[in-house]
Sequence to fold (408 residues):
Amino acid sequence: MRRVILVRHGQTDWNVAGRLQGASDIPLNSVGIAQAEAAAAALAPRLGDVDTLYASDLVRARDTAAAIARHAGARVVTDARLRERCYGVWEGLAVAERAERFPEDHQRWLDGGEPQIEGYETHEQVRDRALAAIEERADEATTVCVTHGSTARVLTCALLGLTLGSRTVANLGNTQWAEFTRVGEGPWVLASLNARWDSVEA
Amino acid sequence: MITLVTVRHARTSYNVAGRLQGSLDVPLGDEGLAQAERVAGAVVAEYGADLRVMTSPLQRASQTGVAIARHAGVQSTPDERVTQRPYGVWEGLTSDEVRVRWPEQYARKKAGFDPDIEGWGASPVVAARVADALTDWARAEADRAEPRTVVVVSHGSAIMLGLLQVLGLPLTPSRLGHLAHGEWNELHWHGADDWRLARYAVREHA
Fold:
């Protein structure tokens, strides 16, 4: 049986402010650092013999992965294909700013479509590069990827056969994870989602 | 938005022995009742006491639901529509016994499909009734000035099929994994057909 575990990084100040980060390299805040420790303690015992964790090279993911790696006695290999979706000119903007400055694209996004703004990475583009990062490690029994909210959701849709961009399965909370299992060539199955008991209050 | 929490009942002696229950009405023993108390404490800690508690009429679920309701200071209500899928002629048997006597049908079930055996509750039928119940209760809460979180205590297969149905996923083979006893899922209903899975396979904090 193969397992894939997608972990979302810990909290950052931009998460709290509701600012889209995308490729912007915002660090964990103090809550995020504590969350990473708590998540690492909860997740490490479930990883078995894993010796390598994969992480987006953005610092919020890298540092979250480092905490898990310490608890699991594993090393971290960074992979830019696990980065958050690029949001281009929307990066740094909160919802109200996007609605005001880009009303049509914002509405499109609310309606489940994709904005047509400069620098935005589409669902397909995210899926292609992020899925490659997972499929390259297909010979590993357990693949742990520390990644980001939007990228994780696109991957979830891809693995479960949902339309990319579907909101049927919720986003991961900070330092929460989604675990998928697969037997042979069978379908990927969702084993858990946002299941960690988050005792670290914001 | 209405929140629904689907909880799998606590373990019975049949569960421990690996015996299929289906429509058999095995009550919780001391271990199960203790587990029900822990689950009840966790659910109320997580979701508060302003709950609507609905349960399958089978004792293993209703007893678990009564524990949750008591911790919340509310009453629980049975609903036939979230009872377990009947397992027909397999009820009371262990997986090993089934595998030996019905090798082909066992393989079908393991692959995630409905076996062709007498008395088996077909996936579309079970999925539809559970989905109806979830939808009715969600709508009932939405009509209230202050909607409550709906806690539904049911069974592994029934919960899985109901979720697959409302989420619009194929019923067979399932894309949702095994739910252990006392684990729960959290669903959000945003009106009409807009159901979202917020959390899957959450358990009481060890």
Notes: The two ends of chain B are 30 Å apart (CA to CA). The first helix of chain B runs from residue 13 to 17. Chain B is about 40% helix and 15% strand. The CA atoms of residues 169 and 175 of chain B lie 8 Å apart.
